[in-house]
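Mods, move this if it's the wrong board.
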Amino acid sequence: MNCLKTCCALWLIPLLLAGCQPKVAPGWSGYVEGDYVYVASALGGTLSQLNVRSGDQARQDMPLFALEAENEQAARLEADARLARANAQLANAAKGKRSDEIAVIQAQISQARAQARLNAAALAREEQLVKQGFVSAAHRDELLAAQAQSAAHLDELLAQLKVGRLPARVDERAAAAADTDAARQAVRQFAWREAQKTRTAPVSGLVTDTFFRVGESVQPGQPVLALLPPGNVKARFFVPEGVVGHLQIGAAVHIVCDGCAAPIAAQISFISNRAEYTPPVIYSNVQRAKLVFLVEARPSPADGARLKPGQPVDVVPVAGAAP
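Not the wrong board. C-alpha cells:
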C-alpha cells in the first residue's frame, strides 16, 4: 500500500509542476533585422574625405564621403574647353567674313569703279580723236580692252563681297553643330565621373558602419559605409505550418521586446512560400523541430527607430489577424 501511495505521489509531482508553470503567451519568437543601404561610388580611388562616423544620423543629400578626383576634374575642364571651341566654330560658321575683310573688298570695289570711270572718260576722248583723224583706231581698241577688263574686275569684286557676307555652307554648319553636340555630351560624361567621386546620402538614416579610413584605396562599386533608414527595420519571425494559412499581407501585429515600454504596432509585409525548420537561434522547445514559415513585419519608420538589428522580439497577433 505504501508503495502504491509513493508511486501515485511520483506521478502527481510532474502534473503539479506543470500546473505551476506560467502560461505561454500567444505569439511567435523572432528577431529584428534591417535592410541596409550600402553607399558606394561607381569609380574607385583614394578616400580623401569621410564626413560621418558609425552611429551618426545622416540626412538625405548630406555629403558622406569623397574620393580623390584630380584626374576627373582635369578631364572635365578639358571637355569644357573643347565645348567652348566647338561653340565658337559653330558661331563662326553662321557668319560671313569679318567686317575688316568686308571693308577691304569694299575699298577694292571703290578703286575698281574709279578706274572704270577713268577708262570710260579716256575712251570717250579717244573716240573723238579717232573721228577727227588725229589718232589711229588701234589705240582706241586698247582702251576698249582696258575698259572691259576694269568692268570684269569690278564684277569680280562685287561677287566676292556677296560671298563674303554669306555664312558657311549648309553641310559645313551641320558638321559644326554635330561637333558642338559631341563636345557637350563629352562634358556630361566627365561631369558625371567627377560627381561620382563625391557621394551624398540617398536617404536619411543611421550610419551603422564605415568600411574605410581616409587614405585607403576604394575599388569601384565597393561600399564605403552602410545606412539604415528607419523604414527599413523589420521583425523576422517564424510561425507554425498550421497558422501560416491564416496570415495575410498587411495584417496587424504587435512587436514585443525587452525594454520596450509598450508593444510596437507593425504590419506583415512578407510571408515565405517555402517551409523550413526552426533556426537554431530561436530557443523554443515548443517550436523546435516543427515545420515553420518565415514571416516579416514592418513597423512605422518612427517606431522602427526604437528597434535594433539583432534584437530578439516576440510578435503577437492582433485580434482578427490570426487564430
